[in-house]
Design a protein that fits this description.
heterotrimer, A alpha/beta (403), B mainly alpha (376), C alpha+beta (566), A: 403 residues, alpha/beta, eight-stranded mixed β-sheet, four-stranded mixed β-sheet, 14 strands, globular, C: 566 residues, 4 domains, five-stranded antiparallel β-sheet, 19 helices, 44% helix, 11% strand
């Protein structure tokens, strides 16, 4: 019994000392970490990208002030992290600043992060990244864009459901403003995305976008526009064949979402006898049907069912809002409007761009495998030849609290 | 070992569930989808049925030789030397299995939890901890199983609930359009997820009522089958057929996507990592325990718990042989095909056939029946 | 005297005789007296009172007793007075008086309640040392041993370590006889057996083994007796000595024997089929077998209604768990995995920790150790000072440390919650185990993060699974085949639902209470038949029927009876 005890104790001691003395490999105190909340990636264009102090650019590799054109300088990576010391006042990095942004130039994100580590006083941690922004130039470069996407997906620290947006212009600019409403940038973007009350942008996260690009080579990214003290996230950016194709407007994106059955709530303003009546859309359902006729042409029929409220009229009453005839008129007008917008978008997608952003191909693959067999090799072309018929059935449910 | 410690059939079920669900569940959605596309869940179902049938075979085999484990009755059925070779074969199989479990566990933990900790440290610590359980007797193993099984099954189901908004059930279509040939080749990859059930040949004599073993195994394997199917279906729902094949460990990635609104949003996948440690620990410990027991019985030792420690070092070295993750999985595929399938499926059936042909075990079986009837 | 010395001392061959029985008493009074005076030389508290009895004072008697151990009034009134005075009033013819004085004294004259005759002088000396008085009669070979125990004792008070809000407030005292009395008051059943033995070469401490004859598992009883008999030690000063000698594994951090000061707990435990070991000179009674579940129960759970009781039980288990892992979780998450907590919390913790010079692990260990120091100091200091120290220490030191920037406020909160949680565990010994294990897990978490934490928990669990207390699994009823006992672990189902005794503890008698309309044997000796058939239908053929097979183990736990969980 005693020798057994001795053996156990000595073994435990050996292992324990071994672990304690050499171990704690991963221990990084939480206050030594820099929590990156937003990440922005741009394509580096020499000469154009001047990195100066106010913009957070500092020294670059080998201590150079300005990065020059070289095979290693391919993208501009910018990060923003909050000033946690503010909570404790004394430990704040810069007492008044709520956030701190830095940027550097490097061959890819991993290396750029390492470079940043040589300039910063903490350990860069991507585990709480809330938003990833990509610049216009980057998404126009197919190879670079695909590399960036792969790197982001492969990195296990970055969660798959971070918000992803394309920035009109340079993504870096987005991280260097001082927003009025919410000083910490990553949180600001995240909160905008959480506003599902508008259907004006496609809320997609990194995972979905990558999946979409894998499946069809295209996707719609939310579009972010940078102003002096705020952002505007609305509309979309169309990716085709793994690179940028066009910007989509807010209204177009809204219609596209309707067709996609991810339509958010929104307001449709229609003109009835000169009065602009806002119709608040609360629910939307889409029914899709695909069939093939004898001429081997594929038909797509989209039926939207919408419900909503009338949100406004005019004080000078000469018509009763509660009248059925008025309501019917509103419904018809809204329906017409919706169909028009959807048809416009569909037309654009089919004929101008030729991108099946609604995964209609997938729908055919799942529900009509026989048709899919015939068209799968040539779907891009078949998509443009498809005959589409859109209809909308709108119902007004409520009219507010006054007649 | 023969100090009268018995396990109940509930404990046997618990042991089986915790042993069989191991590292395989992480990659399962990917492997079955790679094999048969959206019908992966069906493949899981068929694999489960095959495992159930084989376990019934083993149960019958064990009932013919009451009180004896495979180490002993393989000597009876075939010659003494052949029996020892078979037992040594199983021993090697389990030692290698332990090495795989340890290595993959270390790699996954390193990937998701501890980035800079050396793989060796993780391997050695999990091996030491498992050896503690491997040194105990079967009753302790049974109790651990009983405690651990609810602990990882219930959260696994519960935490899938918040995924429901993300699900796209249409991802499972089209339905059943895979060719039977692909199915058969896919079968070989999925049956390895059920490996471990053959340990029945080692545990059956310790059951209080061996007659219940077939029923217990069926229930246990059905539960495992349901869990696997749930995991595969959820992963395909969430990611779609294309993406799920790109993710190396889709099960984990799936849990990363889950957000529980309001509560600790990020912590779901933390909890899953914690549960993951438990899952692999049980698998590793039971396999380790089996290796120790088999070796002990081959050498006809009375107390064989001391074997555990030297085996730790052997498994440690084996675990560190592959150079990188892809190589680990390549070796794993070879292992499952050349060792797993023969030892797990083919051998028991072969032994049963030989035993029946030689007309063995009938009298002992009948005597045992009479005994148990008197006793109860 | 220490425990370690006892462990490392050479084992003697055989055991020295405890009861004596070597020297016979002689018929000469002087010889006996000399024997006693020799043996008890320099024991100035031994009183020798010689007196004469008889009408002509012809019989020499001697009364020997130890001052302080005896009831003076009884000695004076019932022994001396009755022998010296009242014997003369007996109606005796002269002839008879000269007859057998010994028998006369023994049967007619002495008006004390307890009188025995003893052949061996050394045995009677031990009785003398235990508080009995000896009557030596010149000319007679036997010694009269009079039960005259009456030493100073504390009186029945509320047990300090197990206070309850609802329930009786009497607790055991240091006198074994009073303790057995308190037990008898609650179980007026002839099946309540109390066997007495003496343990301890020099202390010859009285130990009483109490059990319910038709409920107890006979194997456990045998095992208890066997282990008690094996104890070879100088003195048993407290039941703790016995506990450490008879427990199953001395190296486990978990106590495998329960101790209690409350008679109601003992009574309820006996009704479940457990065995109580009452030790003289200590109010702490041992109960075996003990499982982890039992350590978390308290008598109040059964006196209050089931809803409240269940809630409090769940609270207890949760707090024990929290007290075990909370600091480790904090360390693991902040040092290793900040990605696992919500962003706002992570930023907040990072913010409050800026400027703190120590890593989280050192912070935690220092704060925990400080708290343990405070706790110990609080116990040792007398009354009001002790409580003040607790408050002062906690508040002031914690607050100042935060303000000085030495620790982060979150750490203080974590440590405080842990401390409070550890107090909620009803059994002191288990609480201590968790406190110590907490450090083990903290170290593991500090080295390997969440993975280390899980490893620590798993190792503890494996240890718990392998632990047994007198043949019963420590983790019953969570493990094993007894699902119906789960009603008394994490929650407490209504009393009307608990009709069976815990299977692994109760040997033969399974049925506990009879609700209206239920047939079956009553709780008593008739329970035999009812009990057995129930049992057989239930199990897999295992589970000890006390009368039948000897398998004590078989998983399954026991719960409390309709009385107290024990």
């Amino acid at each position: 019994m005693k020798s057994k005890l001795k053996r156990v104790v000595s073994l435990a001691l050996v292992v324990g000392i071994m672990l304690c003395a050499t171990g704690c490999w991963d221990r990084i105190e939480i206050n030594e970490r820099l929590f990156v909340l937003a990440l922005a990636i741009d394509k580096f264009e020499p000469g154009r990208d001047v990195q100066n102090e106010e913009e957070g650019g500092g020294q670059h590799e080998e201590g150079k002030d300005q990065p020059e054109a070289s095979p290693r300088n391919r993208m501009v990576v910018s990060i923003v992290f909050p000033n946690v010391g503010l909570l404790k006042k004394e430990g704040a990095i810069v007492p008044e600043e709520a956030k701190f942004s830095v940027s550097t130039v490097g061959p890819n994100i991993s290396e750029a992060a390492r470079q940043l580590n040589t300039r910063l006083n903490g350990n860069i941690f991507f585990g709480h990244v809330k938003a990833i922004l990509v610049g216009e130039a980057l998404i126009k470069d197919e190879k670079l864009f695909m590399e960036v996407l792969d790197e982001l997906e492969r990195e296990h620290e970055i969660s798959r459901n971070v918000d992803f947006a394309a920035v009109k212009g340079d993504a870096k600019d987005a991280l260097f403003i001082k927003p009025l409403v919410e000083p910490i940038i990553g949180t600001y973007i995240e909160k905008i995305f959480r506003q599902r009350k508008t259907g004006r942008f496609y809320a997609k996260d990194l995972g979905r976008i990558v999946t979409s690009i894998r499946e069809i080579g295209g996707a719609v990214l939310p579009r972010l526009v940078v102003a002096e003290k705020e952002y505007n996230i609305a509309g979309g950016c169309l990716i085709k064949n793994n690179k940028f194709r066009a910007w989509l407007g807010e209204i177009e994106t809204r219609a596209a979402q309707w067709i996609d059955n991810t339509g958010g709530e929104d307001v449709i303003s229609i003109d009835i006898s000169g009065i602009f009546i806002p119709f608040e859309l609360t629910e939307l359902k889409r029914r899709m049907r695909v069939w093939r006729d004898e001429a081997d042409i594929i038909h797509l029929s989209i039926a939207l069912e919408a419900e909503g409220n009338i949100a406004g009229h005019i004080i000078d009453v000469h018509r009763e809002v509660m009248e059925q005839s008025f309501i019917r008129e509103v419904e018809t007008a809204v329906s017409r409007d919706m169909v028009a917008q959807c048809t416009a978008v569909m037309d654009k997608m089919q004929h101008e761009f030729g991108v099946d952003i609604w995964s209609i191909g997938e729908h055919i693959r799942k529900f009509h495998p026989q048709i899919w067999e015939d068209v799968k090799d040539n779907w891009a072309v078949e998509f443009t030849k498809m005959e589409v018929d859109i209809s909308a059935d709108v119902k007004v449910r409520r009219v507010g609290i006054i007649k | 070992m023969d100090d009268g410690e018995k396990i109940t059939s509930n404990q046997l079920m618990a042991i089986m569930i915790s042993t069989i669900i191991g590292i395989g569940i992480l990659t399962l959605p990917r492997t079955v989808t790679e094999a048969v596309g959206p019908d992966g869940w069906l493949l899981v179902l068929v694999g489960g049925v095959v495992a159930i049938i084989t376990s019934v075979v083993i149960s019958k085999l064990g009932l013919m030789f009451p009180g004896k484990t495979m180490v002993e009755y393989s000597r009876d059925i075939t010659t003494k030397t052949l029996g020892i070779i078979i037992s040594l074969g199983f021993l090697t199989y389990y030692i290698l299995f332990c090495a795989f479990e340890a290595r993959i566990f270390a790699e996954v933990t390193k990937q998701f939890l501890l980035d800079r900790t050396p793989t060796e440290a993780i391997v050695i610590t999990i091996l030491f901890s498992s050896s503690y359980l491997a040194r105990q007797d079967i009753a302790t193993v049974g109790k651990m199983g009983q405690m651990m099984v609810p602990m990882f099954i219930i959260p696994a189901f519960l935490f899938l609930l918040p995924v429901i908004p993300e699900l796209d059930p249409t991802n499972l279509l089209p339905f059943m359009r895979t060719s039977p040939l692909k199915f058969l080749t896919g079968l070989s990859t999925v049956v390895t997820s059920y490996l471990g059930f053959e340990l029945l040949f080692l545990f059956q004599p310790f059951m209080a009522r061996s007659r219940d073993s077939a029923k217990a195994m069926t229930v246990a394997l059905t539960v495992i089958m349901l869990i696997y199917m749930l995991v595969v279906i959820s992963a395909v729902f969430v990611f779609g057929v294309v993406e799920v094949q790109r993710l190396i460990w889709p099960t984990f990635s799936m849990y990363r996507v889950i957000e529980i609104p309001g509560a600790f949003i990020e912590s779901i996948h933390g909890v899953m990592m914690v549960i993951w440690v438990v899952v692999v620990y049980m698998t590793l410990a039971v396999l380790f325990f089996s290796a120790v027991t088999i070796l002990g019985r081959i050498l006809s030792l009375k107390k064989h718990s001391f074997i555990a420690l030297p085996l730790v070092f052997l498994i440690y070295f084996l675990a560190l042989i592959p150079d990188n993750i892809p190589q680990v999985y390549d070796y794993l595929d070879m292992f499952s095909l050349y060792l797993g399938v023969p030892f797990g499926f083919v051998l028991p059936v072969a032994l049963l056939i030989i035993a029946k042909v030689r007309g063995m075990g009938k009298e002992e079986g009948e005597r045992h029946e009479k005994q148990t009837k008197k006793g109860s | 005297m220490g425990f370690l010395d006892i462990l490392t001392a050479k084992k003697q061959k055989g055991k020295p005789e405890l009861g004596g029985g070597k020297d016979k008493a002689s018929s000469s009074l002087d010889k006996n007296l000399r024997y006693l005076k020799d043996k008890l030389e320099d024991c100035d508290d031994v009183i020798y009172r010689e007196f004469s009895v008889g009408s002509r004072q012809q019989f020499r008697f001697a009364l020997v007793f130890i001052d302080g151990l005896i009831d003076r009034n009884m000695i004076n009134d019932d022994v001396l007075k009755s022998l010296m005075l009242e014997i003369r009033y007996a109606n005796m013819k002269p002839g008879i008086l000269s007859g057998d004085v010994f028998s006369l004294a023994l049967r007619s004259a002495l008006t004390t309640g307890e009188v025995k005759e003893e052949e061996y002088i050394d045995k009677s000396m031990i009785s003398l040392l235990s508080g009995d008085s000896l009557i030596l009669i010149d000319g007679y070979k036997k010694v009269l041993v009079i039960g005259s125990k009456g030493w100073p004792n504390r009186g029945v008070q509320e047990p300090q370590t197990e206070a309850v809000i609802r329930g009786s407030r009497d607790g055991f005292t240091e006198t074994m006889r009073f303790n057995t009395a308190l037990l008898r008051r609650r179980l007026r059943d002839p099946n309540l057996k109390i066997k007495q033995i003496k343990v301890g070469v020099r202390s010859k401490t009285d130990i009483a083994i109490a059990y319910m004859d038709n409920i107890v598992d006979k194997n456990v009883l045998k095992e208890v007796e066997k282990r008690l008999e094996r104890i070879n030690i100088d003195a048993v000063l407290e039941s703790g000595y016995i506990e450490q000698f008879i427990e199953d594994s001395w190296y486990s951090p978990f106590p495998q024997i329960q101790n209690t000061e409350r008679p109601d707990r003992v009574a309820a435990s006996l009704l479940e089929g457990r065995v109580a070991i009452i030790t003289d000179n200590t109010p702490f009674v041992l109960l075996v077998p003990a499982t982890l579940n039992i350590m978390f129960q308290s008598s109040e759970d059964y006196y209050e209604r089931w809803f409240i009781a269940s809630f409090i039980r769940i609270l207890r288990y949760t707090s024990a768990f929290i007290s075990l892992i909370l600091p480790a979780v904090y360390i693991a998450i902040t040092s290793y995995h900040p990605g696992l907590i919500p962003t706002d919390l992570a930023l907040y913790i990072a913010g409050t920790r800026t400027g703190v010079p120590f890593p989280a692990f050192i912070e935690a260990v220092v704060m925990e150790l400080t708290l343990e120091l405070l706790r110990e100091a609080g116990i040792r200091l007398p009354g009001p000072i002790g409580q003040t120290i607790g408050i002062v220490g906690g508040l002031v030191i914690g607050q100042s440390a935060v303000q000085a920037g030495l620790v982060s406020p979150i750490m203080v909160i974590v440590v405080a919650i842990t401390a409070i949680a550890s107090f909620a565990v009803s059994s002191y010994s288990v609480g201590i185990s968790f406190r110590i294990l907490r450090f083990f897990i903290i170290i593991l978490a500090a080295v390997l993060g969440l993975y280390g934490l899980m490893l620590g928990l798993l190792i503890i669990l494996v240890h718990l699974c392998s632990l047994k207390s007198f043949g019963v699994s420590y983790l019953s009823p969570l493990v094993g085949n007894t699902h119906y006992e789960m009603g008394d672990t994490f929650v407490r189902v209504p009393l009307t639902a608990m009709h069976r005794r815990p299977k692994t503890l109760a040997g033969a008698n399974m049925i506990r209470i009879r609700s209206n309309g239920e047939k079956g044997a009553s709780v008593g000796s008739g329970g035999q038949t009812g009990g057995k058939s129930e049992q057989d239908a239930e199990t897999d053929g295992q589970g000890g029927s006390g009368a039948g097979k000897g398998n004590i183990e078989s998983g399954g736990r026991q719960e409390g009876g309709p009385g107290i969980g024990g």
